[in-house]
C-alpha cells in the first residue's frame, strides 16, 4: 500500500504558467536550454540550471546555486510563483498530437520507496543522486515531479474525467514544442479523500521516469531526519513530488544504440561476427525499424540489415533480464563484439530515444559521428513491471517513457 498525499504547491501565476515552466531538457538538448535561459527572463531554468548563465562551465554549486536562489526569490517577490494556501491534488493533462496523458500530481512517501512499495527498474549513480539531494537542500524544494505509474483504477479515472470534462482548467497553454498543457486544482475534501483511499488500496507504484530524483529526494530526507531526530514522518521532507499516470496511459519508446569504433565496424569480418548470433537479412539503405520483439536492426556503411536472433540462442535464454531485447543487444553485440563491459561509462556508446525517429540515426552514421546504429523494439510496460517486482535492474537506457513533465509547473516547497 502506498501513501499519496496532497500538498500546497509553489506554482506559476495562472497567466505565466507557460512562460515560467520549462521542458525537462535532457543532455541532448543543451543548446535549446541555453536558448531558453538567454531569451526568457522568467524561465524556471534560471533557478534549476543557473550554470547555463556560464556556457561551457561545469556545474559548481558554490558559485551557481546562489544565482538560482536569487532568481527563485525574485520570482516569488514578483508574484510569478505563488504558494497555494491549502494542500491540494493537481490533475495535469498533456496533449501531444493525438495522444493525451492525464495524471495526478501529489507527493509520495520516501518510506514507501525504502520499503519497496514504490519499485524501481534502474540503478542510480551516487554522484548524480547526491547532486540532486544537494540541490533540494539548498533550494528547499523540487520542481520536477517523478513520473510514477500504477495499475489502472476505475474510480481514479472517473474522477479525472469529471474534472477534465466539467471544470475549467487553472492552466491552459500551448508550449513552444506544440504540446498543450492543462491543470486542475483538486481542493474538495471528498475528492481528496477518494484519491488518498484509492491509492492506499494499490499495492505497488512503479517509477517510470525519475530514478535519480527519487534517490536524491531520499538522500535529502535522510539529511533532514538527522537534523530533526524527533521528526513525525508528516513533514514534507519525508515526501517527494510525483505525477501518477496509469499503465495504459503511458507511451514507451525504444532506446537505440550508437557505436563509435571504426576498427571493429570496418573489419571485413564484422558482419560474420554478427551472424554468429543473428540471421542478418539485407534491408536496403535505410535503418530498420523493428516491428516485433527479438528483431533488431543495424546500419553501417550506408547499408541496413534486419537481425533475428538465432533460434538456438533464443531457446537458451532464461530469466526476466536475459529475455529483454536490450539485454540481448547488450550481451551479443555490445559485449561480445565490441567488448563494451559497462554501457554507462564506455565513451564509444551513445543512445537516442525512439521518439526522435530513425532518420536521425542515419544522419549520425552517414556524417561519420558514429560508425554503427543499432535499432530496437520498445520494452513493454509488462517487462518494466516484472523487472521491478523481481528487484532486478535493466541495462542502461532501456526505456524512454512519455509524458515528460514540465519543470517548475508544480513545485514541492519544504519551507
Give a description of the structure:
- The structure is a single chain.
- This protein has 15 helices and 21 strands.
- The protein has about 425 residues and is an alpha+beta fold.
- The protein has two domains: about 260 residues, Conserved hypothetical protein from pyrococcus furiosus pfu- 392566-001, ParB domain; about 120 residues, Conserved hypothetical protein from pyrococcus furiosus pfu- 392566-001, domain 2 (2-Layer Sandwich), CATH 3.30.1760.
- Helix 4 crosses helix 6.
In short:
The chain is of the alpha+beta class. The protein is 33% helix and 24% strand. It is built from 15 helices and 21 strands.
Which structural category fits the helices and strands? alpha+beta
Question: Main beta sheet, described?
Answer: 9 strands, mixed
How many beta-strand segments? 21
Helical segment count = 15
Which secondary structure elements does this structure contain, and how are they paired or packed?
Elements: E1 4-5, E2 10-12, H1 17-20, H2 30-39, H3 45-48, H4 61-77, E3 81-83, E4 89-96, E5 99-109, H5 110-114, E6 118-119, H6 126-139, E7 141-142, E8 146-150, H7 154-166, E9 171-174, E10 179-186, H8 189-200, E11 205-209, H9 211-227, E12 239-246, E13 251-253, E14 255-259, H10 262-265, H11 270-274, E15 278-282, E16 295-300, E17 303-309, H12 311-316, H13 325-335, E18 349-353, H14 359-366, E19 372-375, H15 381-389, E20 400-402, E21 412-413
Parallel strand pairs: 6-11, 8-12
Antiparallel strand pairs: 1-5, 2-3, 4-5, 4-10, 5-12, 7-21, 8-11, 9-10, 13-20, 14-18, 14-19, 15-17, 16-17, 16-19
Amino acid at each position: 500500500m502506498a501513501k499519496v498525499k496532497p500538498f500546497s504547491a509553489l506554482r506559476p501565476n495562472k497567466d505565466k504558467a507557460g512562460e515560467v515552466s520549462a521542458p525537462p531538457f535532457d543532455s541532448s538538448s543543451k543548446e535549446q536550454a541555453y536558448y531558453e535561459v538567454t531569451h526568457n527572463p522568467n524561465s524556471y531554468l534560471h533557478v534549476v540550471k543557473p550554470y547555463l548563465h556560464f556556457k561551457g562551465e561545469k556545474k559548481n554549486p558554490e558559485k551557481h546555486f546562489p544565482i538560482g536562489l536569487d532568481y527563485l526569490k525574485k520570482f516569488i517577490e514578483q508574484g510569478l510563483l505563488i504558494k497555494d494556501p491549502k494542500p491540494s491534488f493537481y490533475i495535469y493533462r498533456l496533449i501531444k498530437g493525438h495522444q493525451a496523458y492525464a495524471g495526478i500530481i501529489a507527493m509520495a512517501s520516501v518510506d514507501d520507496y525504502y520499503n519497496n512499495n514504490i519499485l524501481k527498474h534502474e540503478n542510480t549513480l551516487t554522484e548524480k543522486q547526491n547532486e540532486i539531494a544537494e540541490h533540494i537542500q539548498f533550494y528547499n524544494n523540487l520542481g520536477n515531479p517523478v513520473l510514477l505509474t500504477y495499475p489502472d483504477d476505475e474510480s481514479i479515472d472517473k474522477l479525472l474525467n469529471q474534472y477534465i470534462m466539467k471544470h475549467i482548467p487553472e492552466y491552459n497553454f500551448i508550449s513552444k514544442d506544440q504540446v498543450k498543457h492543462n491543470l486542475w486544482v483538486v481542493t474538495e475534501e471528498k475528492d481528496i479523500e477518494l484519491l488518498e483511499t484509492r491509492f492506499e488500496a494499490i499495492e505497488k507504484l512503479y517509477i517510470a521516469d525519475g530514478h535519480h530524483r527519487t534517490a536524491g529526494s531520499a538522500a535529502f530526507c535522510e539529511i533532514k531526519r538527522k537534523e530533526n531526530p524527533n521528526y513525525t514522518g508528516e513533514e514534507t521532507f519525508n515526501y517527494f513530488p510525483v505525477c501518477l499516470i496509469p499503465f495504459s496511459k503511458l507511451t514507451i519508446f525504444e532506446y537505440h544504440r550508437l557505436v563509435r569504433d571504426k576498427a571493429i565496424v570496418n573489419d571485413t569480418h564484422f558482419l560474420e561476427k554478427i551472424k554468429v548470433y543473428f540471421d542478418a537479412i539485407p534491408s536496403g539503405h535505410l535503418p530498420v525499424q523493428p516491428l516485433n520483439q527479438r528483431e533488431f536492426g543495424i546500419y553501417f556503411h550506408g547499408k541496413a540489415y534486419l537481425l533475428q536472433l538465432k533460434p538456438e540462442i533464443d531457446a537458451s535464454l532464461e530469466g526476466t533480464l536475459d529475455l529483454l531485447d536490450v539485454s540481448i543487444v547488450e550481451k551479443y553485440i555490445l559485449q561480445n563484439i565490441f567488448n563494451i563491459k559497462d554501457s554507462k561509462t564506455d565513451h564509444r556508446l551513445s543512445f537516442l530515444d525512439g521518439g526522435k525517429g530513425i532518420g536521425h540515426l542515419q544522419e549520425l552514421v552517414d556524417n561519420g559521428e558514429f560508425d554503427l546504429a543499432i535499432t530496437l523494439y520498445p520494452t513493454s510496460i509488462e517487462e518494466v513491471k516484472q523487472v521491478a517486482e523481481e528487484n532486478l535492474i535493466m541495462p542502461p537506457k532501456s526505456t524512454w517513457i512519455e509524458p515528460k513533465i514540465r519543470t517548475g509547473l508544480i513545485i514541492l516547497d519544504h519551507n
